Amino acid sequence: YCSEHCWNVLQHNRQLLEQSTMETNNNSQFMLSVYATKSLNRKRKKLPENENENNNNEHSCHQPKNKRQKTEINAPSLEAIPENKEQDTEIEKIATVNNINEEKKNDEVNEENVWKKSRKVRRLYFCANFPTLVITPVKGRMLLSASSLVRFMGLDQNYIRLKVKAHTHSASWRTLYVHLSKEIQTSELEDISKRFNDIHSKQSVRNDAKDGNEVQFVTPKCSIFQKTYSEEAKKKRLEDVNNPDVNRYVLLKNINLRESEKEIISSLEEYKYKIQECKRFKGLPIVKVLMSSAEDVKRILSDNNIFIGYQKVKCEIFDQNRRRPRKSFKQCRKCHGLNHIANECNKKPVCKYCGRINHNSTQCKFKKSPKKYQCVLCKGNHRSDSLICPKTQEIRQKLGIAFTRRENEIINRKKDQNNNQNQKGNHAAAKPKKNPNEQVQTKVQIMNKQKLAPSQQPEHKNNPRNQLESINNFGKQTQTRNINKKDIGNHYSFDSHENDEIAFLRSEVASLKSTINKMNLLLNKLMPFIENKLDNGDSNDFSKNMNSNANDTTDETMDQW
């Protein structure tokens, strides 16, 4: 159908081209090429005024007849496929079920995805599903490949390679777990473990004969894995650690970092202890010491009066496999929930300040207003990641995670701040509120006092001399008050001394200003009298009178003038 339709379209196009070429040859001398894109400079025809707007829009550009005409292919329209909502919903359900099954397969540990999991998960899976042999102690990092394992076992290589399924290691790399195929029986496991122990016991005897019992070689031992093996291994390890015949390493704590290893050995030899090795932990006040005999180990552990570099030393037995319990408090930084991390979180991000979802914590309006904080966990007036939150404190107590010294300081500081804010709020609520009418009356009285007439004003404001005396008296009063404070409490500070000096200087400046003003007034009154005398020729008599009365001038005469 498609081929026939295309053939018909081609024939129709050819006919149109032939017609256009015939018209151009008959009507005009010029002909446009098929590939011409440049428009000709011809006059456009004027369109009639009474045409509709639609026709104007369609025929806005008049094309000449000589140009190629466009042809449109009207292909038959395909029928729309009817939509079935029921089928779509069924398909979506099937897809969701398949996704869930795939997730479960990924979560479940199988032989296919075991090797993508952690070392601990691998070990637990193989120990639960396959018969295993346990070999300790071992340098596990030297036994990663299958060929190295076969050489280490020392048995028939063809036999072991067929039987061994996999091998795993412990967290400390000191125990080796050899997982065999399911077809093997318990009798075969016992035979393999016996042969392994016989071979390695002979090798240890040869080494002892060569070295003359100077170094003790710990031979690896093989046993069949059981479910209670981990508990039994822990008990045995604790017994070996606390046994001084097996473990002769001791930890010495509280030693100064400046003390060298030679100085530590010489100071311990003064207490009559024989030491083989001494190793310091870098950047820590702890030293590991290997004692020469079990008696020295017992004696140093019981001795509580050992001093190295004028510091008392604490002694403990050294446990090589000791680890701190992994107790971790998890809080999400995305939704601020508990017992998960942000990478594992599928929820929407929540603001740690106001507890809302529609914005990020960096863009929160209430970032600098702690009164409007709201916790996501307990709905309290604090941040969601705060140490004050009671839910976080409960969970940390259950896990046995104690607060550090720094965290305790932060908690106490925040509690003090909250208590101070509550006390301020209580005081503000306890104060009686004044009536607005009384406040208005007091303001009116103050304004009336400021607008008094000059006759009603106090005297010290009108009289400049009284003003000077009041300033001088104020300076003297401040001096006497400060002196009394000094005598009573002996708390005469440098600031109070400066304030006294400033007050005294201000009083002197005011007095000088007043005298200058008086002198100016006196000169203004004397100038006309002097000019009259000079004009009359009595200058000598006036100068004599002035010289005679110069010594008799006082403040009273100045005030009179």
TrEMBL record:
Where do the record's region annotations for Disordered lie? 45-70, 411-469, 535-561
**What Gene Ontology terms describe what this protein does at the molecular function level?**
nucleic acid binding; zinc ion binding
Any idea where the CCHC-type domain is? 331-347, 350-366
* Record's compositionally biased regions (Polar residues): 437-457, 537-552
SMART domains according to UniProt? ZnF_C2HC
The protein here is known as CCHC-type domain-containing protein
What is the organism field in this record?
Reticulomyxa filosa
